[in-house]
Amino acid sequence: IPIPLYEGQSWIENSDSNRVSSLSAKASVPAGDFTDCLRIKTRIGGGDAGSAERIYAPGVGLVMETITAEDVQESLKLISYYRK
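Above: the chain sequence. Below: its structure as tokens.
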């Protein structure tokens, strides 16, 4: 993920097209409710192979990921984490 981040920022990684869609997203997962999250949308293989959405919470990391391809949809949600 390139730094510094800003909404609308985009980059290509391998054949995937990525874009920062929000710096203030919200996520509600089994591990809790998170605000001010980074949301990145990805077009896998340039969009031909599907899409993905990842949400990263400050101080925690990846809390949610959804991948949609031609014949499958997968979703990952953080269920717990260690708080200092």
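Strands lie at 10-13, 16-29, 32-44, 50-57, 61-68, 73-77.
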